[in-house]
Write a structure and sequence with these properties.
The protein is built from 13 helices and eight strands. The chain is α/β, with parallel strands linked by helices. It has one domain: Aldolase class I (TIM Barrel), CATH 3.20.20. An eight-stranded parallel beta sheet has the order 3-2-1-8-7-6-5-4. The termini are far apart.
Length: 287
């Protein structure tokens, strides 16, 4: 890697802040090898999205490939939701343990759970695994008020969740965001006013959302649902190596202000013609 610029400080792995939580939607082994060779230092955990792990033929090989690079793997929360729905929670736990996974994600974006019920599942899972819980519905018609987000997040942290993921889906159009993808800035403000951002992972699959979060919460914000092809672009946003966040981390304004006068002096001044020099217009008869 190159090393001649001064950049924002990033926590070393294993990180507790500045986490990049990546979604694998079905990569093959050769693709995983390329991703890890390029940016394994910037990947803190890989989620095998929704229920893809269940239908991946070489699932054990994929898990081993990530783990050999020091990258923990977890299944998507949707798979655990289905297991709970079908009364297979214990079988899910046994399978995850047998596969050597150290992390588990639990969500209730599709099936409804009471706060107490979900906390009970988190406490059980936390005995054997590092638990990431997720708050927020995958249904855009279900709008959770800010105070309720805070209650749910705090309950799940108290139950033993390592981090709470704030929902956005892969589309980035629910939960923390409007249907247009624009951030619900007021909601995010209310959440971080009551909950330490270090305890949260903000799903931000879209570039504009990543920029918003990095500008708002800094280089060490925890980001989730990052596509495998976006890991390096996200890291450049964190470090001000991209135009969108360069001014947030480097003295761009100081540099530019010093040159305001010089730039103004370089601007050509248009010559003004006197009215005496203007050619007389010929007046036509209006018919």
């Amino acid at each position: 890697m190159l090393d001649f610029c001064s950049l924002p400080t990033r926590s070393p792995k294993p990180r507790d802040v500045g986490i990049t939580h990546v979604i694998d939607k079905g990569l093959g082994l050769s693709q995983i090898e390329d991703v890890l060779a390029t940016c394994s230092d910037y990947i803190d955990i890989v989620k095998l999205g929704w229920g893809t792990a269940y239908v991946t033929q070489n699932i054990r090989d994929k898990i081993r490939a990530y783990q050999a690079a020091g990258v923990p793997v977890c299944f998507g929360g949707t798979l655990l939701e289905l297991a709970i729905l079908q009364g297979q929670f214990d079988q899910f736990r046994a399978t995850v343990k047998e596969l050597g996974l150290t992390h588990v994600e639990i969500s209730n974006g599709v099936i409804d759970m009471t706060m107490k019920e979900k906390a009970r599942y988190i406490r059980t899972l936390a005995r054997d695994f590092t638990v990431l819980s997720e708050v927020g519905s995958k249904d855009s018609d279900k709008v959770i008020p800010p105070y309720r987000w805070v209650e749910l997040i705090q309950s799940e942290l108290d139950a033993g969740a390592w981090k709470v993921i704030c929902e956005a889906r892969e589309s980035g159009t629910v939960g923390l965001y409007f249907g247009s993808g624009e951030a619900r800035a007021g909601l995010i403000d209310e959440i971080v006013a009551k909950i330490d951002p270090a305890d949260l992972i903000f799903e931000a699959p879209l570039k504009a959302q990543q920029i918003f979060m990095v500008r708002k919460l800094g280089a060490e914000v925890n980001l989730g649902n990052i596509a495998t092809g976006e890991v390096i672009p996200v890291e450049t946003l964190r470090l001000g190596l991209r135009a969108d966040t360069m001014a947030a981390f480097h003295e761009v304004d100081v540099w530019n202000k010093r040159r305001d006068a010089e730039l103004a002096a370089e601007m050509p001044k248009p010559e003004r013609r006197s009215r005496a020099q203007e050619p007389k217009r010929r007046l036509g008869r209006v018919r």
